[in-house]
Amino acid sequence: MGNREREKERDGGASGEQRSVASSHGTIEAIRNFIRSRYNNGFLNLENMSHDSMLRAAKIVPPGQTKGRSDVGTVMMKVAAELFPETTTISFAMNGLKSLQPISSVAQFFPNLQNLSLKSNDIREYKDLEYLSGGKKLPRLRELILLDNPVRDRDIEKNKDDLQYRSTIATLFPALQILDQLPIAPKISFGLGDLLNDAGGSGKVVLPAPVKGNFFDNPATQTTVLEFLENYLKLFDSNRSRLEHAYDANATFSFATMQLPSLLQKKRGDPSDNWSVYHAQSRNMTRVKDLEQRTKRLHYGNKDIIQEGLMKLPETKHDLSDATKFCIDAWQTGGLLPAVCIYISMHGAFEEVHHGRQGVLKSFDRTFIIAPAPPNSPAAMNGWRVVIISDQIIVRSYNGSDAWKPSMELSVPSSIIAAMSGVPAAGLPVPVPHIAGVPTTPQEPMPGVTPEQHAKAQDLQRLTGLNYPYAIQCLSACDWDIKKGVVLVSENRASIPKDAWQQPKF
Description:
- The chain is α/β, with parallel strands linked by helices.
- The chain contains 16 helices and 15 strands.
- Strands 8, 9, 10, 11, 12, 13, 14 and 15 form an eight-stranded mixed beta sheet that branches. It has a seven-stranded mixed beta sheet with strand order 1-2-3-4-5-6-7.
- The longest helix is centred in the middle third of the chain and has 20 residues.
- 27% of the residues are buried.
């Protein structure tokens, strides 16, 4: 290599500051001695090289410094790899690096590097890390330190936390497990393992089970939910003030926006949406960092929800005549209130109504938690069979309805179906409880039951959804202790027969 470089120098191929370090045998030997002095048991300590006496004596300007030679970093890494190929950890801390370009040859000479410190440098942009980022350059890099670099400090100052910073670095270095001496949050796969990685370059994820349409855990839930949504959305589009009694006095409501253009918009070349009307109230946690603002944008109580929440959203129109524009999943769930509630997850689209000009389509995801409206409650007295406990909306750029379009049935192993549904492959379907309700006619006491026991049985009915005979049987086994009865029902809900539950009374 020396002869070739000397020829290049004689030919004028390199000059001045950019001449190759390799042109001097003495320089190479100085670098070898320097590397030897900095190595210890798998760790190559290349910190603060500008102050190293050996490099100064040889007049070698290390990477990261101004007026340095172009290939000094490459030569250092080549020499280090020849001397100590077993190196697993390198520290470039305190070298004034503004970019990783001067040390980009680390990936070439140490492809199996596991730990890298870039602490206390001057790296300002994420793009300056791309010389070593990506899964192919350092595929086994498990730990990275970027403390005391502007790229980290500025991001944290801007976002008030390090979530975005850590997420970005984890994307740039996909094998990373530890960042700045703290573990990287594990990737969430929702039980699908490496399914997302298996999509390859197609951009499409092949799920282990087909996409299906709406889901309701039983016919009673379906009837209740569809009736509620039809009544609610009609008033939401026409007269939101009349929805006040549909919300419980302690209900909560919030909404958030996701303002990035959708894939459908990009494909069609549609212009970006105008989101200005949503800005003041959007509770998108990735954007709203201030605790006071987060609290302010969570609306509490039916009056606040209507006046400060719903009434300040744009006028809308939901096309309820076309069921394919919506996807609804709903099921009964316990543990939120004394009565069993219904959780509703709804996806669809609405049109923002702009009088005098064309409306704008928006996609949305909306979740409700509803419960039976108590007798004589404002909800019941205004014709609502259920009352809203919680309501959340996410408004997005319009992306059509293909995401929930039912696909053709696939041949799926029963074990996978069981894993996704929570039902043992060889087991029986888990009974679904009916919604707790209040009997419309007084229940006659059973023979031998005291008035006090009769009252407790009715209380247990309201709390659990059991019918009267099973409530009596449950309390008899619990020494007529209502709290023990509730726990017993909760722990054995899956094994309680279907005929033990009340029919819904809305």
